[in-house]
Design brief:
The protein is mainly alpha-helical. Helices cover 66% and strands 6% of the residues. α8 runs antiparallel to α9 and α9 packs antiparallel against α10. Pfam families: TRAM_LAG1_CLN8.
Length: 377
């Protein structure tokens, strides 16, 4: 008796997976292989890509502590983590978002926005917990004065520097993802705007040694953005579910107020009371009056622009809501009128007893009723 050998097909290596998978997975795997070969050839060069550079040991009460400062070599580390972010982006897209999209059967436009919000929800949620952990463990939350005291904050701990490098890498990876994800041309300007805004603010806080203030501002911004993209995900699954948008609107306004308050408190008042007010880029000191005014002006302009976009979004949302309500009322009125006309047409007309034949009214027994004679006077 011959037995047929049963073959099991693995979807990871199937032809469908190879054809329909993202092109960036293969590209990133090749890059990782090259980096792995580089690691085998020379470990010192590989550590330049993987670990933060410019470490220095400083004496502390508990012993020597390793701190870091920034430099041009950080670009190499950021480049490595850009490839890591591309791989993680593809994994989330392939094994989470694509499976949900197959069940929802969304349109092409909603499909693109669903993928965008899904990726940002995962990133913002991770960044919120990571940023909050850094703020608490570094003692910035228990001592708010540390935001401006002992400025410039040239030396960073490992987790603070690594957090900023990963943030820069993620938002830089979003630029090639516009090509990999085949984003529509109409959506590219909008996405480029907020990508550039994040890069400018994160890189500015990192280079100008305002990393402590930047952590608080990023935490506030990511909380508001997380709620917004969660609201969009629930809206795409059910268009009647818009309660999260109302919660996001309230949190958004509160975060804008806290952002402006912290910025004015730390830069306008805190740095103004510092002892050193010299402008010395070589030592990382940018604490001068023009510097503080420029930074505050840029922060206020950015918040004003974001607030204007928020107001425009809310007005458009209310306009769409009232148009939808008026359309429903018109549809209900039209259906009521149509129903009344149908009932009126279906109502039977009252006819005389008997029936007509050749213009004469016949009785039910078939005889013609006798006409009544009029008496002549």
């Amino acid at each position: 008796m011959a037995f047929r050998r049963r073959t099991k097909s693995y979807p990871l290596f199937s032809q469908e997976f190879v054809i329909h998978n993202h092109a960036d997975i293969g590209f990133c795997i090749v890059v990782c292989i090259l980096i792995g070969l580089m690691f085998e050839v020379t470990a010192k060069t590989a550590f330049l890509f993987i670990l933060p550079q410019y470490n220095i040991s400083l004496s502390a009460p508990d012993g020597e502590t390793v701190y870091y400062h920034y430099g041009i070599k950080d670009l190499v580390t950021v480049l490595f983590y850009v490839f890591i972010a591309i791989i993680l982006h593809a994994v989330v897209q392939e094994y989470v978002l694509d499976k949900i999209n197959r069940r929802l059967h969304l349109s092409k436009l909603k499909h693109s926005k669903f993928n965008e919000s899904g990726q940002l929800v995962a990133f913002h949620l991770t960044s919120i917990f990571w940023c909050l952990y850094v703020i608490v463990t570094e003692g910035y939350l228990s001592n708010p004065r540390s935001l401006w005291e002992n400025y410039p904050h040239i030396y960073l701990s490992f987790q603070v520097k690594f957090f900023y490098l990963c943030q820069l890498a993620y938002w830089l990876h979003a630029l090639p993802e516009l090509y990999f994800q085949k984003v529509r041309k109409e959506e590219i300007p909008r996405q480029l705007q907020y990508i550039c805004l994040y890069l400018v603010h994160i890189a500015g806080a990192y280079v100008l040694n305002l990393t402590r203030l930047g952590l608080f501002l990023l935490l506030l911004q990511y909380v508001a953005e997380f709620l917004f993209h969660m609201a969009r995900l629930f809206y795409f699954t059910d268009e009647n579910n818009q309660k999260l948008f109302n919660a996001w609107a309230g949190v958004f306004v509160i975060t804008r107020l806290f952002t402006l308050t912290l910025s004015v408190l730390a830069i306008g008042f805190g740095l103004a009371r510092a002892e050193n007010h010299t402008f010395d880029p070589e030592r990382g000191n940018f604490n001068s009056l023009p510097f503080r005014m420029c930074v505050l002006l840029l922060l206020c302009l950015a918040q004003a622009w974001v607030m204007w976009r928020f107001i425009h979004f809310q007005l458009r949302r209310w306009r769409e809501y009232w148009n939808e309500q008026s359309a429903r009322k018109r549809a209900a009125a039209t259906s009521t009128t149509t129903t009344a006309m149908t009932k009126q047409q279906a109502k039977p007309t009252k006819r005389e007893s008997g029936y007509h034949e050749n213009g004469l009214l016949k009785a039910e027994n078939g005889t013609t009723p006798r006409l009544k004679k009029l008496k002549s006077s």
